Amino acid sequence: MGKIILTGDRPTGRLHVGHYVGSLKRRVELQNTGEFDDIFIMIADAQALTDNADNPEKVRQNIIEVALDYLACGLEPEKSTLFIQSQIPELCELSFYYMNLVTVSRLQRNPTVKTEIQMRNFEASIPVGFFTYPISQAADITAFKATTVPVGEDQLPMLEQTKEIVRKFNSVYGETLVEPEILLPDNEACQRLPGTDGKAKMSKSLNNCIYLSDEPDSVKQKVFSMFTDPTHIRVEDPGKLEGNTVFTYLDAFCRPEYFEEFLPDYKNLDELKEHYKRGGLGDMKVKRFLNSVLQAELEPIRKRRKEYQKNIPYVYEILKKGSEKAESVAAETLREVKGAMKINYF
Ligand code: ATP
Ligand code: MG
């Protein structure tokens, strides 16, 4: 059996550096190792509509933004299939059958859904589609027989839910679906990158993002307004690293060579952290360093994005071709699923 990746993003905004370290960077690396037989990258517009039903225009416009971010980060259409979820109707059909294998109380216990319901003030009136999106995510993953799902830590409950559906389906109808494995970033700071406001997660919905396409000035301004250690007032005061967003970002983005380039007084991040804890290292110096690091990481992405932006019809063509390929794969899985359920009557 081959090794297959399925992952994706909701087109609810441009992609940010949390997406980058949480999932995108890993996808590009895995794409370039060549060890996967197929890589499917989905723009989850149908899922985005589950909490943006009254704003389809926002979702529509962000499809191209997300596609540009993908290409800018180095996903290549020759190696990875980029496609749009809503163009694969087979996913709805699979979801419909999987719904019978999941209970309402099981969905209610999903911690990510719980948090998201709170964030969106949906407590009193949850759209049914939003409530059941973990099931549709199981359809997305299993339609492509994905073995590997590289995502951030917030997706753990979704993967658990998918595995349960796979087991249930296979035990009721016979071995048909493939159980996927989650692939989290090795680096803990990347699993759930906090927002620039220090909040638990950088998220489009929370307005605390550094976007991959932000201009240098905007990145700088966001870095300089970032949360550090509130008790570190004077330069000579000892500083804390826990909950210090600037250091979390350095954990996520810093490469050893950046010290030589931007901060030659220190050999590595451990040395910088030691000095901060001891006292005598000001926040401004650390922020200036983080700004240089982020600018170095984002510059090539921004440049590539601008190139692709000149040819939007070409980007749509990539998505069209990718969607056609994705549909043919999903259709084959659906045939197998219906065969296993013995509902292929004619
Ligand atoms: P929304 O607010 O619309 O849900 P989002 O910013 O949470 O947007 P998603 O499209 O839900 O983004 O997530 C896409 C992928 O990026 C998922 O794999 C998710 O785990 C990962 N991801 C999102 N935010 C972060 C983050 N702050 N740190 C690490 N990974 C993240
Ligand atoms: Mg999300």
Automatic annotation (TrEMBL):
Keywords: Aminoacyl-tRNA synthetase, ATP-binding, Ligase, Nucleotide-binding, Protein biosynthesis. The keyword Protein biosynthesis applies. Its EC number is 6.1.1.2. CDD domains: TrpRS_core. It catalyses: tRNA(Trp) + L-tryptophan + ATP = L-tryptophyl-tRNA(Trp) + AMP + diphosphate + H(+). GO terms for molecular function: ATP binding; tryptophan-tRNA ligase activity. GO terms for biological process: tryptophanyl-tRNA aminoacylation. It holds the Pfam family tRNA-synt_1b. InterPro entries: aa-tRNA-synth_I_CS, aa-tRNA-synth_Ic, Rossmann-like_a/b/a_fold, Trp-tRNA-ligase, Trp-tRNA_synthetase. Belongs to the class-I aminoacyl-tRNA synthetase family. PANTHER family: TRYPTOPHAN--TRNA LIGASE, MITOCHONDRIAL (PTHR43766). This is Tryptophan--tRNA ligase. It comes from Muricomes intestini. The lineage of its organism: Bacteria, Bacillati, Bacillota, Clostridia, Lachnospirales.
